[in-house]
C-alpha cells in the first residue's frame, strides 16, 4: 500500500499533468504531420488534375464523335454485331465443345502424369542397369526392368500426345466458330486505337472512371504517412547531371522542380489554360522530346534562372516583369523577393539573356530578336571599347578615326559636336559626355566648356595632314541625290528626311552601319567628301566603308548633294571663349595628383596656353576614354577605362553601388543595369522628395564619367538582356551546339557579314536587304507609285538575294568577283562595292560559309563540258527559243528584246559563274530559291503527247521528252554554251541613256467620260 | 527581435531576469528563515529529506521532457531555421558577429588588443571561475542562497555576470551594426555610416599633446608611463587595498588567496575602466608596443 506521506509531490496532480502534457504532445505531433503534409504545390497539382480530367474527357468525346462519323467504324460495328449473333446462336455447340475440352484436359492431365512418372522410373532403371554393367547389381533383372519401362514410357507418351491432339482439334473448332468475331474486333481496335488510349488515360486519372478497388487505392496512396510508397501527388523533378549550379566551394547538379506546379508545361493542349498550367510556347523548340532543348536535358533554370530546387512560388525565386506585376503578386500570392538567392529568376522580358551563354558564337541568334538587337547595339555603341568584354577582343573601333581631323572639319564644329552630338544628328551613336546630370551646376558648366576646348585643341594639334585631290567641277546636286538614292549608299547610311523607325530591329539597324548623312554642309567641306568617297582608305585605313568605284563626275555630284544641307541652328550654337583661368584650374587638378601645390603652380607658370590646352586635352581624352571608339594619335596602347563586363551578370548584387537609390529602383541586378545604361551618372546624385536631385560631394575628376547614349525603352530592354547574358557559367560541351566544320564556318562567315554589313544590301535566308525600302522610293521617284509597290520590281532592282549562293556559284569565280566586282545584272543601278580592306582570308571565310551553309561540300569540281552537237544542246536551243529567254537575258552582247526593267543576268556568264547542278534546281522553280523573282520557271512540254511535241518542238526535244530532268539539263546545256563578251556595260549605258528602264506607267486618265 | 535568429536572445533576457529574481528571492527567504532561527530551504538532513527516485524525481522529469519536446516542436515549425545564401569566401557578412555566447568577448575587442581580449582575458576568466572554490573560504552562506552572509560574493558575481557578460551580449546583439558601429535600437543599419576613429595612445597623450614634443624613439622611454601605471595598478593598489577597504577580506583570505583574488578582480575591472577611458578621453592603448605585438 503506497503511503501518501512518503511522496514529495502529489501523485494525482502529477498524473493529471502527465495526461495533459501527453495529450498536448500528441496533438502537436498531429500538427507537425499536418504542416508537413499540407504543401502548397499539392493544391496546384489537384487543380491541374481537374484540368487534365476535363481536357481528357473532352478529347475522348471528340474522338468518339470522330469515330461515329467514321464510316469504317460503323461498318465494323455492324460486322461485330452480326458475328456476335452468329456466335451466340451456336452457344449450345460451343458449350458442348468446351465441356469436351474440359474432360479431355482432365484426361490429358492424368495421361501426362503417367508418362512423367514412367519417364522418372525409366531413368532409375537406366541408372541401375548401368550400375549393373559396372558390376553392382543384377544385370539380367535390371535389363529386363529397363526394357519394360522403356516400352511403358513410349506407350504412355503416345497416349498423352493423342489426347493432346484431340484437345488441340477441339480448340481449333472453337477458334473457327469465333473467327469472324475476332477479326472484326481486331479491325475495330486499330481504328479506335486513339480513343482507346485516351479512355485508358482517363481511367487512370479520373476517380469517377476508376473501378472500386482503384478508387480506394486512389485515396489511400495520398494519405499522410502512407504517401511515401507511390503517391499521385508528388514533387516532380528533373536532374541534369552535366550542368552544375555554382555553390562557391563546389558545383552541384542542377535539379529543377518547376514542373511540380507547372504540370502542363511540356504537354500539348494546355496553351489556353491559366498559369501555372500553361503549355510552354514553341514546344518544338523548347521542352519537346524532339526539340533542341528537351526538358530532361536542360531543365528550366538553364534558361530562366531562379532556384530550381524550390517547391513553392516564393522559394523558387520568381521575379515580376514590372512594378505592377510585383504589386499584384504581393496582393494575390503574398510574394516577396527571395532574399538570399544570388540568381533570381529572370523576368520574362529578359529571358532571352540565357541564350547567350551557349550560343555566344552565332549572333544574331534566331528566335532571340531582343538579344540580337541588344548585341547589335553593343557593337554599334562600342560598349566593348571602354569595358572589356569576352568575344569582342577583335572588334574594330566603332567611331571614325581622328588622326587627320584638321583636314575634315573645323575646331568650331568639333567643339559643338562634342558638346552635343545628338543636337546635330539625332540618331548618332556617339554618346553625350557633357551636359550630364552630375555637371549641371554653374561651375561644372564653365569647366565643361574649357574641357572641350582642351580636347579639341589636342586633336587638332596632333592632326596629320591629308593630301586631297582637287575636284574638277562643282558637281550637280540633283544628280548626286539620284546617285545616292540608287547606287547603294542607303544600304549602310540614312540621309536626312528619313522617318525614325518606331520599333528597332537588327535589320533596321543595318542602315545605321555608317553615320546618318544629314547636314554635312555644317560639318565638313565638299572637297573632303569628294576625296573620302573616292577612296575612304586613304583617309582612315581602318574604316569599314568600302569603295564604290565612283568616277570623278559621280563623286563631284554626290559631294555636291551631300554638302547642300546645313543645320543653321546648330551652327549658331554658342562657343564660349577659351578661359585661361579655367584651363589652369583643370590643369592644376590634374597635376595635383603627382605634384605638390607649389610645384603645380610653378609648372603651370612655365607652360604656354597652347601647351596647357594640349596637356589638359590629352589627359581628358584618357579620362573620358575617347580612344575607346576613335583612333587617336598617342593612345594606341591605352587600356579600357571601364569595368570589365564579361561576367557582369554573375556579380553579386552587393557589388553594385546603388548609392542613394536603394528605394527608387527595385533591388535587383537588372534594374541596376537598366538604370545605369539609361542614365549612367545618376548614381552620383541624391534623389529628393520632389523628384529633383542633389549631387554628392565629389571632386570633378572623381565624378562618374560613363557617357549617356539616349536609348529608348526598347533599346534599354535589349541592352539589359545582353548584360544579363554575360554570366560565368561553364557549359559542358555535351550541351553546346556541335563544333563541327559546318557550324564553325557559319559562325566565322556570319561574323564577317555582320562586320561589313552585307545584309544591309543583301537578304540571306530571309533576313537582311535593309536597303529594299529605299530602292522602292527610288523607283517611286523615277517611275511611279504603282511600280514602287510591286514587290518583284523592287526586288529586281535591289541587290540580289543570296539564298543558296553556296550551291549556286563557282567559288573561284566568286573570289574573283569579290576582289573586282563586275556587272552581272545589267539593269541594276546599285553596285557591289570593292571591299579593299578585306583580305583573301576573309574572302575565303565567306565563300566557305556559303558553301557549307548551303550544303555544297566539295572543294574541287570538274568543269561542265557541253557538246554543241549533242541532243541535249539542240533540244535546249529549241526550248530556250520557244521560252523567249532572249526577251530578258543578254546573250553576250546581244541585247534582250524587252525593256530594261525586265532584264536578267547576261547568260554568257553562266559557264564561268554558275554551278551546273544548281541551274537544274533553279529551273525547276525559281520562286523557291529567290521568292519574288521575276524569272518564270521555263516551260518544258512534259504533259504534252509525244507526237505533238515532235511536231512543234522538234525531234531532239521529243527524244528527251520522257524524262523532264533531261529537258531541264538541255536548257542548262544550252545556257552553258552561250558565248560572247560578259562586259556589256557600254551597251547598257547607251541603252539606258536612250530608252530608260521602260517602266510601265499608268497615266492618270484625266479625260473623263464627259469629255468624249 | 522576432527574427528566428534573435528569438533565443530575447528569450534569454527574460530567462536571466527570471533566474536572477528566483535566486534573489530564495536568498531573501533564506535570510528571513535564518533570522527566525529556522533551517534554510536548502538544508538537507539525511535520511528524512530523501525523496524517492520514482515518482518524485523521474516522473517530474518525464513530464518536463514531454512538455519541453512539445515546445521545441512548436518552435521548430513556427520559427524555422533561416537558410541564407551559399557561403562565399569573397563575400563577408557585415556585421560579422560571433555566436551570442561570445559576443561579450567580441565587444571587448573594441577596447582591447586581440591578444588581450581573445587570449589573456578569457583565460583569466576561466582560471578565475575554476579558482572560485579555492578562494572562497567562507563557511557561512555555503550551499544556500543568502544576502546576509554573501553580500560581497553576490555583488562580485552579479557584476561579472550581469554587467560584464550579459549586458555585453545584449549590446552585441542589438546595438552593434555594420562595421561594428553603434546603432540605436531602432536605428536603420546603414552600412555606409562613417564614424571617425580618432583614438590615441597614452604615450601620444603625454608626449605629443601635453608636452608638445615628438614621441621618443626608445620604446621603453615612450611607454614608461603606461608601464608604470599598469605596474602600479597591479602591484601597488593591492597592498593599499589590503590595508584599507579590503582589510577584513585580507585577513580572512590570507596572502595567497588574497593575491590571486585581487589580481583577478582588478583584471576584470580593467574592462569597465578601459571603456570609460575610451569614451571620455578617446584613449586607445595604455601601453602600445606594436613592434612586439603588445598593446594594452
Query: What's the mean pLDDT score of chain B?
Result: 89
The best one-word shape of chain A is flat
| Percent of residues in helices of chain A | 40-55%
Tell me the total number of β-strands of chain A: 8
What oligomeric state do the depicted chains represent?
A: heterodimer
Spatially, the strands of the biggest sheet of chain A line up as 1-2
Note the overall shape of chain B: flat
Low-confidence segments of chain B, given as residue ranges, are none
The helical percent of chain B reads: 55-70%
Strand order of the largest sheet of chain B: 1-2
Helix/strand/pairing category of chain B: mainly alpha
User: How many beta-strand segments of chain B?
Assistant: 2
Largest sheet of chain B: 2 strands, antiparallel
Backbone structural class of chain A: mainly alpha
Unreliable spans of chain A are: none
Query: Could you tell me which chain pair has the largest interface and how many residues each side has?
Result: A-B, 25 and 23 residues
First-last Cα distance of chain B: 35 Å
Write the layout of secondary structure elements.
The complex is a heterodimer of chains A (1012) and B (296).
Chain A: H1 11-37, H2 40-69, H3 71-89, H4 91-134, H5 139-191, H6 193-205, H7 212-220, E1 238-246, E2 251-256, E3 286-287, E4 293-294, H8 295-298, H9 301-304, H10 323-333, H11 369-381, H12 383-386, H13 405-408, H14 411-419, H15 421-424, H16 442-461, H17 477-487, H18 526-534, H19 536-539, H20 552-563, H21 568-571, H22 580-591, H23 597-606, H24 609-624, H25 669-678, E5 685-687, E6 693-695, H26 713-725, H27 741-755, E7 763-764, E8 767-768, H28 772-782, H29 785-789, H30 791-797, H31 805-808, H32 811-819, H33 840-853, H34 871-883, H35 910-913, H36 916-924, H37 926-929, H38 946-953, H39 955-960, H40 964-977, H41 985-995
Parallel strand pairs in A: 3-4
Antiparallel strand pairs in A: 1-2, 5-6, 7-8
Helix pairs in contact in A: 2-6, 3-5, 4-5, 11-26, 14-16, 16-22, 16-24, 17-20, 18-20, 22-23, 22-24, 25-26, 27-33, 32-33, 34-40, 36-40
Chain B: H1 7-35, H2 53-78, H3 103-111, H4 114-135, H5 151-175, H6 202-210, H7 219-243, H8 247-281, E1 288-289, E2 294-295
Helix pairs in contact in B: 3-4, 3-5, 4-8, 6-7, 7-8
Amino acid at each position: 500500500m503506497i503511503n501518501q506521506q512518503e511522496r514529495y509531490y502529489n501523485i494525482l496532480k502529477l498524473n493529471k499533468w502527465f495526461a495533459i502534457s501527453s495529450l498536448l504532445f500528441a496533438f502537436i505531433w498531429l500538427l507537425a504531420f499536418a504542416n508537413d503534409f499540407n504543401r502548397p504545390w499539392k493544391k496546384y497539382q489537384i487543380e491541374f488534375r481537374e484540368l487534365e480530367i476535363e481536357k481528357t474527357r473532352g478529347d475522348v468525346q471528340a474522338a468518339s464523335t470522330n469515330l461515329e462519323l467514321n464510316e469504317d467504324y460503323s461498318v465494323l460495328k455492324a460486322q461485330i454485331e452480326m458475328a456476335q449473333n452468329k456466335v451466340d446462336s451456336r452457344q449450345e455447340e460451343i458449350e458442348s465443345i468446351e465441356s469436351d475440352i474440359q474432360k479431355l484436359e482432365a484426361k490429358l492431365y492424368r495421361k501426362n502424369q503417367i508418362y512423367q512418372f514412367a519417364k522418372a522410373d525409366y531413368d532409375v532403371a537406366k541408372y541401375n542397369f548401368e550400375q549393373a554393367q559396372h558390376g553392382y547389381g543384377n544385370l539380367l533383372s535390371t535389363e529386363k526392368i529397363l526394357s519394360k519401362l522403356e516400352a511403358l514410357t513410349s506407350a504412355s507418351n503416345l497416349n498423352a500426345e493423342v489426347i493432346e491432339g484431340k484437345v488441340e482439334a477441339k480448340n481449333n473448332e472453337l477458334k473457327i466458330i469465333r473467327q469472324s468475331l475476332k477479326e472484326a474486333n481486331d479491325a475495330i481496335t486499330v481504328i479506335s486505337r486513339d480513343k482507346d488510349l485516351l479512355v485508358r488515360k482517363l481511367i487512370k486519372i479520373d476517380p469517377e472512371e476508376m473501378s472500386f478497388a482503384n478508387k480506394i487505392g486512389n485515396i489511400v496512396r495520398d494519405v499522410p504517412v502512407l504517401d511515401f510508397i507511390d503517391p499521385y501527388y508528388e514533387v516532380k523533378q528533373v536532374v541534369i547531371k552535366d550542368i552544375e549550379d555554382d555553390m562557391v566551394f563546389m558545383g552541384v547538379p542542377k535539379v529543377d522542380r518547376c514542373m511540380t506546379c507547372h504540370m502542363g508545361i511540356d504537354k500539348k493542349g494546355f496553351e489556353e489554360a491559366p498559369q501555372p498550367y500553361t503549355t510552354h510556347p514553341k514546344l518544338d523548340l523548347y521542352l519537346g522530346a524532339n526539340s533542341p532543348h528537351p526538358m530532361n536535358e536542360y531543365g528550366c533554370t538553364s534558361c530562366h534562372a531562379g532556384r530550381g530546387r524550390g517547391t513553392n512560388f516564393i522559394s523558387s525565386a520568381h521575379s515580376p516583369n514590372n512594378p505592377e506585376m510585383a504589386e499584384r503578386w504581393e496582393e494575390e500570392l503574398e510574394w516577396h523577393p527571395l532574399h538570399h538567392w544570388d540568381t533570381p529568376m529572370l523576368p520574362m522580358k529578359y529571358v532571352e539573356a540565357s541564350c547567350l551563354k551557349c550560343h555566344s558564337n552565332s549572333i544574331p541568334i534566331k528566335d532571340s530578336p531582343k538579344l540580337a538587337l541588344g548585341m547589335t547595339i553593343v557593337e554599334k555603341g562600342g560598349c566593348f571599347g571602354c569595358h572589356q568584354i569576352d568575344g569582342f577582343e577583335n572588334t574594330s573601333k566603332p567611331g571614325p578615326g581622328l588622326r587627320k581631323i584638321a583636314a575634315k572639319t573645323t575646331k568650331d564644329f568639333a567643339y559643338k559636336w562634342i558638346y552635343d552630338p545628338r543636337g546635330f544628328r539625332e540618331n548618332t551613336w556617339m554618346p553625350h559626355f557633357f551636359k550630364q546630370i552630375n555637371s549641371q551646376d554653374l561651375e561644372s558648366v564653365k569647366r565643361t566648356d574649357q574641357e572641350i576646348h582642351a580636347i579639341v585643341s589636342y586633336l587638332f594639334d596632333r592632326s596629320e595632314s591629308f593630301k586631297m585631290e582637287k575636284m574638277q567641277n562643282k558637281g550637280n546636286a540633283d544628280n548626286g541625290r539620284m546617285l545616292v538614292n540608287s547606287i547603294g549608299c542607303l544600304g549602310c547610311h540614312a540621309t536626312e528626311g528619313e522617318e525614325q523607325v518606331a520599333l528597332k530591329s537588327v535589320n533596321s539597324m543595318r542602315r545605321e552601319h555608317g553615320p546618318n548623312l544629314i547636314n554635312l554642309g555644317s560639318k565638313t567641306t565638299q572637297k573632303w567628301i569628294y576625296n573620302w568617297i573616292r577612296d575612304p582608305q586613304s583617309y582612315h585605313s581602318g574604316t569599314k566603308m568600302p569603295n564604290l568605284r565612283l568616277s570623278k563626275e559621280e563623286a563631284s555630284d554626290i559631294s555636291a548633294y551631300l554638302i547642300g544641307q546645313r543645320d543653321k541652328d546648330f551652327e549658331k550654337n554658342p562657343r564660349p571663349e577659351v578661359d585661361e583661368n579655367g584651363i589652369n584650374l583643370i590643369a592644376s587638378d590634374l597635376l595635383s595628383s603627382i605634384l605638390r601645390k607649389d610645384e603645380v603652380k610653378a609648372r603651370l607658370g612655365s607652360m604656354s596656353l597652347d601647351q596647357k590646352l594640349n596637356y589638359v586635352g590629352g589627359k581628358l581624352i584618357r579620362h573620358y576614354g575617347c580612344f575607346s571608339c576613335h583612333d587617336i594619335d598617342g593612345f594606341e596602347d591605352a587600356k579600357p577605362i571601364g569595368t570589365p563586363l564579361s561576367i557582369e551578370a554573375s556579380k553579386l548584387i552587393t557589388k553594385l553601388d546603388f548609392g542613394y537609390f536603394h528605394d527608387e529602383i527595385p533591388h535587383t541586378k537588372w534594374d541596376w543595369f537598366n538604370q545605369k545604361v539609361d542614365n549612367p551618372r545618376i548614381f552620383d546624385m541624391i534623389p529628393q522628395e520632389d523628384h529633383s536631385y542633389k549631387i554628392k560631394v565629389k571632386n570633378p575628376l572623381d565624378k562618374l564619367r560613363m557617357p549617356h547614349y539616349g536609348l529608348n525603352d526598347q533599346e534599354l530592354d535589349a541592352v539589359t538582356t545582353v548584360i544579363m547574358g554575360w554570366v560565368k557559367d561553364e557549359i559542358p560541351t555535351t550541351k553546346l551546339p556541335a563544333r563541327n566544320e559546318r557550324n564553325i564556318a557559319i559562325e566565322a562567315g556570319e561574323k564577317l557579314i555582320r562586320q561589313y554589313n552585307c545584309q544591309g544590301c543583301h537578304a540571306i535566308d530571309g533576313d537582311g536587304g535593309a536597303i529594299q525600302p529605299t530602292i522602292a522610293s527610288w523607283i517611286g521617284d523615277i517611275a511611279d507609285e504603282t511600280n514602287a509597290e510591286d514587290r518583284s520590281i523592287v526586288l529586281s532592282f535591289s541587290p540580289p538575294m543570296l539564298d543558296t549562293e553556296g550551291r549556286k556559284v563557282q567559288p573561284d569565280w566568286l573570289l574573283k568577283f569579290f576582289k573586282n566586282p563586275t556587272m552581272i545584272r545589267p539593269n541594276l543601278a546599285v553596285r557591289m562595292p570593292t571591299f579593299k580592306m578585306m583580305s583573301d582570308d576573309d574572302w575565303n571565310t565567306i565563300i566557305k560559309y556559303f558553301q557549307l551553309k548551303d550544303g555544297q561540300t566539295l572543294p574541287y569540281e570538274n568543269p561542265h563540258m557541253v557538246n554543241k552537237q549533242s541532243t541535249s544542246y539542240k533540244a535546249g536551243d529549241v526550248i530556250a527559243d520557244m521560252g523567249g529567254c532572249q526577251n530578258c537575258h543578254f546573250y553576250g552582247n546581244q541585247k534582250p528584246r524587252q525593256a530594261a526593267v525586265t532584264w536578267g543576268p547576261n547568260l554568257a556568264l553562266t559557264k564561268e559563274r554558275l554551278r551546273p547542278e544548281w541551274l537544274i534546281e533553279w529551273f525547276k522553280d525559281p520562286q523557291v530559291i529567290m521568292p519574288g523573282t521575276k524569272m518564270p520557271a521555263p516551260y518544258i512540254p512534259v504533259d504534252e503527247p509525244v507526237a505533238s511535241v515532235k511536231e512543234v518542238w522538234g525531234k531532239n526535244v521529243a527524244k528527251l521528252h520522257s524524262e523532264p530532268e533531261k529537258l531541264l539539263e538541255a536548257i542548262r546545256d544550252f545556257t552553258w554554251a552561250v558565248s560572247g563578251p560578259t562586259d556589256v556595260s557600254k551597251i547598257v549605258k547607251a541603252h539606258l541613256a536612250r530608252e530608260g528602264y521602260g517602266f510601265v506607267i499608268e497615266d492618270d486618265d484625266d479625260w473623263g467620260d464627259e469629255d468624249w | 527581435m522576432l527574427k528566428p535568429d534573435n528569438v533565443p536572445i530575447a528569450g534569454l533576457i527574460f530567462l536571466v531576469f527570471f533566474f536572477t529574481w528566483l535566486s534573489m528571492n530564495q536568498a531573501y527567504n533564506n535570510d528571513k528563515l535564518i533570522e527566525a532561527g529556522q533551517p534554510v530551504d536548502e538544508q538537507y538532513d539525511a535520511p528524512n529529506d530523501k525523496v524517492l527516485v520514482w515518482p518524485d524525481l523521474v516522473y517530474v522529469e518525464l513530464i518536463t521532457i514531454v512538455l519541453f519536446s512539445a515546445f521545441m516542436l512548436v518552435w521548430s515549425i513556427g520559427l524555422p531555421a533561416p537558410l541564407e545564401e551559399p557561403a562565399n569566401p569573397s563575400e563577408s557578412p557585415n556585421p560579422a558577429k560571433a555566436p551570442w555566447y561570445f559576443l561579450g568577448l567580441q565587444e571587448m575587442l573594441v577596447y582591447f588588443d586581440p591578444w588581450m581580449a581573445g587570449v589573456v582575458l578569457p583565460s583569466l576568466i576561466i582560471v578565475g571561475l575554476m579558482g572560485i572554490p579555492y578562494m572562497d573560504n567562507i563557511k557561512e552562506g555555503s550551499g544556500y542562497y543568502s544576502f546576509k552572509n554573501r553580500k560581497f560574493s553576490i555583488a562580485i558575481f552579479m557584476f561579472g555576470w550581469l554587467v560584464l557578460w550579459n549586458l555585453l551580449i545584449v549590446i552585441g546583439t542589438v546595438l552593434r551594426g555594420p562595421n561594428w558601429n553603434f546603432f540605436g535600437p531602432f536605428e536603420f543599419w546603414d552600412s555606409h555610416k562613417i564614424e571617425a576613429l580618432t583614438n590615441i595612445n597614452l604615450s601620444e597623450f603625454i608626449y605629443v599633446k601635453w608636452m608638445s614634443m615628438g614621441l621618443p624613439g626608445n620604446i621603453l622611454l615612450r611607454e614608461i608611463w603606461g608601464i608604470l601605471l599598469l605596474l602600479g595598478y597591479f602591484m601597488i593598489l593591492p597592498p593599499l587595498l589590503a590595508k584599507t577597504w579590503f582589510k577584513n577580506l585580507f585577513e580572512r583570505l590570507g596572502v595567497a588567496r588574497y593575491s590571486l583574488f585581487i589580481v583577478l578582480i582588478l583584471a576584470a575591472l580593467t574592462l569597465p575602466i578601459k571603456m570609460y577611458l575610451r569614451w571620455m578621453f578617446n584613449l586607445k592603448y595604455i601601453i602600445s608596443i606594436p613592434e612586439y605585438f603588445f598593446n594594452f
